[in-house]
Each structure stands twice: as C-alpha cells, then as structure tokens.
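Researcher: Good morning. I'm working through a list of sequences from a screen, and I'd like to move beyond sequence-only analysis. For each chain I'm collecting a predicted structure so we can compare shapes side by side. This is the next one on the list. No need for commentary yet; just the structure.
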Amino acid sequence: MGRKTDKQNIFWYFFLVIVIIIIAFVHLYKLTEIPYGLNVDEAGAAYDAYSIATYGVDRYIKSYPVYFINYGDGQNALYTYLTAVLFRLFGASKLMVRTSIALSAFLAALFGFLYASGKWKEKGVSYLFLCLYAVLPIFTMTQRFGLESHLMLSASILVLYTTVKALETEKCQYYLISGIVLGLSLYTYALIYIVLPVYLLLWLVYGIYLKKIHIRKLLLLLLPLALLAAPLIMVQLINAFSLPELQIGPITFTRLPEYRSGELGIHDIFRNLKQMFVNTLLYDNLPYNTVAGYGTMYYFSLPFIFIGFGKTVKETYLSFRKRQLDYSALILFWFTGEFIMGCLLQGWSTPNTTRMIGIFMVYLYFLANGIYSVWKILKRVWQKRAFSGILAGLYAISFVSFAHYYFTDYNQEAFPMNWLFYEPYDEVSAFLEEHGEESWASRATCYPWNYVYYLWSYKINPYDISLSVNGAETFGQDRINEFPANTLVNHNYVVYYTDQGSISFLTQLGYHPVSLGSFTYFISPLESYEQLTETGDLFYVDSLQAVENGISFSGWCMDEKTDAPYMGYLLEIDDVAVEILRTERQDVADAYGREDYLECGFTATLPMDTFQTSESFTLIGIREDGSLETVYQLIRKKESHKQSLCDAGV
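Model: Good morning. Structure tokens for this chain:
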C-alpha cells in the first residue's frame, strides 16, 4: 500500500512539473515578440512607468497619480506601478513591461490551483483545473501583453481564494489579507467597481447566514479595503462633480479630461446578453485576445461549462440549505457580479473579452466542475478511462494546434497595420545614436506611430515636453504621425516594413533606404546634394514637400543688394526651365513691417522624381535691371559620397 501511494505521489509530482513547464512556455516563450509591438495602452503604461520610476511623475508631470490620465480617459494604476518597480530593479525594457503580466499569469495559476484543491479533495480535479489553465487559449493570449485591465483575471481568483479562506478558517490574518487584496484589486480595472460591491454583498450575506462572520474580524477586512479604496473614491468624486484636481503630499488625485461615466447604463441589456455569450464563450473582434478557429476555451468545452454551471448552482443551493460552506457559492457570487457589470455596459463599451476578463477563472471552475461531474456519473472503470483519454486527447491536440499557430503564423495573420499594436523605435534610436555625427542624422525625422511610442523609445524626460491629452505633433524637430501624406523632402522618414506603399513612394522621391529590421530608415534625398550658395536671413524655403502632382516648392527671398524683392525668378533643373511664379507674402511684410516686401514669394511644382534623377537644382532671382543672381543651388554629390554611406552601413 505504501509503495502504491509513493508511486501515485511520484506520478502527480511528475504531472505537476509537466504542467508548470507548459504554463512557463506559453507565458514566457517569445514574450517580447508575440504579440508583436506594444499595444497603445501598454505603451502608455510603459512610458508612464518609466517616468514614475525615473522622475516620480507621469507624462503629464502628475506626481504619483492614483489614476493615470493616459490618453485622456484614464488608465488603471496597479500595472504601471508594478512595472515601475521592475524598471527600478532591472532597467526599463519591453521585457520588463511584459514581465508584470507574466507574473500575474503565474499568480492566477497558483491561486487557481489552491482554490481548486480546497474545493475538491480528489487530487486529480485540482490538477485538471491547473492543466486546463495551461492549455486554454484565453489564458495564454490575454496574459502575454501589458494591457493593465487584464490584471483583473488574477485579481479575481486572489479575491476568491482569500475571502473563502477567511470564511473557512475564520482566522484574523485571512480577513486582513482579504481586505488588502480586495483594496488592491480596485486598482486593476475600473469595471471591478461594479463587480466587487455585488460580490462583497453576497459574500457578507452568505457568511452571516453561515454564522462565520464576526464583526470584530470583519473590521480587519473593511479597514484596509476602505483605506485603499478611499483614493479612488476621491478621484471618482473629483471627476463626477468636476472638482479641481487635488494633490496631497506626493499623491495626485487626477481630474480626467474625458470622464467615462457614459459607458454604463441600462439601455443595452438585451444586446449585452447576447454579446456576453458570444464574446466570452466563443470569440470576439479582438484578435489579440481570441482566435475564431479556437475560441476562448475550445468549442468542445461548452457543454462541460454549462454542466459545471448547473452543478455550481446546485452546490450553492445545497450550501445554503445545509448551512455548510462550499467554494462553489463564492464562484457563483463573483459570476453574478460579472454578469451584472456586463449587462450595464452601453454604447461602444460592449462586453468583450477585455471588459469581461474577470469572468474567465469562473468559467474555468465551471469547466472543471462539469468534466468532473460527467466523470463521476460513469460507473465502470473502462468508461472513466475512455472518457478521460478521449478528453485528454482532444485538449492535447487542440493545444498543440493552437500553440503551433500562435507561436508561428499568428503575428503575421492577426495584425494588419493600425490594429492597436505598433512597434517601438528601438532599432531606430540605436541606429541614430550610432551615426549621430553624420550630417543626415541632424535632420528632423518623421515617425508614423502614436506619440507615446516616440516617448518610450527615446526615453524622453517628461519635464522636457509640454504634453496635452491630444498628444503632440512634434518633439524638438522630430515630427509624429505625419506620414506619408505631404512628405517633407528635407526630412528623414521611418517606415514600418509592411508599409510597401510608403516604401515605394519615398524611393520614387529619391530617398536613400536603410533596413533596420522592422523598419526602414529613409534619408532625405537632399543629402545626395551639396548646397553651393549661402542663404542669409532674407531667404526661406517653407515648403518642399510631395503633393498629389509632384513636389511643392515655395518660400520667399529678398535681394540683399537692393533690399527689395526680385522682379521675377528662374528655376532650372539640369538646365531645364521649370515654371515658377512670384507670389505675395503678407506674412513676411507684416513680420518685417515693410509693405514693399509684399511680393517676395515664389512657388513652383517640381516633377516627382526631381531629386531621384537630377544633377543640379538652381533658383535664380531677376532684378529690375535684368541682372541675375543665383539665390539657391544644389549640385549632386559625387558617387563616392553614396559609396561612403554604403561602406558605413548606411
């Protein structure tokens, strides 16, 4: 008997090691690569975490905000502060940004396993629970990138575990720990503000009914909960009643430019009932959370989830009837809170997998309960073994198929451009740092993504910028999100490798491409030319950019010898005359207080391939006496210049 027990223990230890390896694999393998880039909210949290860790303020110079502003409508704080701690310990990197969610995934696995072990005394069921957590797509996909609201998944099972242990043991330490966990969970996702009160009310009624809650012990839970909730309540009051922003010591109680109170209501309940089922049990329109081919938990799991739900309801009923604690009751209470929250979403805020992230540990419980219930119904050993073998085979095959797809083809197929995920400019910043002494590196560079990717990639000091909630179009001389329309020919450009249209367009203009992995860095075609004339204060080109029919060339200049506008202009490209018009520039006349400067402007449209093929570019001013003056002249550099760029890796 003893040997048999030892063999069983060895088997379960071996099985546990295998499952842990699988969990580690799906949450750590290619963590910085899949999903590609950074989610826009993930990038916002990353830069705010860097700013907090380095300067003690966020991107808007708010000292230690209770609730971050992000892009104007707010961002939950816990993920940012966890990431800031990792940055202080290990340095700011994309790996550390995603380490926070990976740690959260391991916490969910641990406390899910402990919860299952408390519910089911049969060891195999708790191992089944952990194994399902390891292989189901929703737990892999939502726990691999730093969307701060996804912390609510691990928060849900932590709340369930600590509160059930408080009722089960009636020990003071569990009440205290529960209060802390409940309070911290409020900082994971704002929608938990609805779920948690519903859950706590049901938990309180249940505990009193079972005579397991005592007032003095309950205070140990309520006190830390109240202390941790108070700052968030203050933020809600400030925003709900448009009160001034408040700072107490280093803590900022933020006033949001866009308060999202309109996302809740009762107008879309019937729509939400359908979408809750479709989005959470099948798949939704967020390809970074779900894949239609596999669903959130594999489609063949659905019957067991429904069976498990029915069994959980029955066990909760019996728990009340017998006045005996059952772990199923707390699962049902949390499900009720999630269900009510999902029904109250309205407008564009629908119950998708992100907003309903807190329900999936409950679904996992239903699934394990359903499978176990079916297994117990089977009377014969061979039936149990056949059922277990078939189900294990289905999950194994599905997982292998899902994992193969996710870690190979998923990135390319699931993420077209502009689907909330973009690459940071790490390769570009390293490239510019390496070639910082080159003349072309001093030119302004235009970047395609949201401004926060620039802040994160270059680790900009938040005190050096004046940031509005709408972001920024420029940082120093660099430009953000001006791409590729109205291309500024005297600027460099950064292009993502999939944007073949922009790559072809810039190549046609004469830009010099440099491949940098995910990006191509395009050096201005003007770098292929040498300027032979010196331009003074009375000459300015304010437009040299690609337009629909060519390149717009315009500006203004004065004849320094006569202190008057030229009577006309000539523009020659390789000795071929191009039409150029004299124009009025009221802005120049007003700036200098000289009305006689009015007709100092010039404008022309150049052929699109001007700087790709031309050897010379000359602007000539014509004086009243007919004499000519070369105002601006570019001559193509010798071929050795291009060869020197190639030799330098550029």
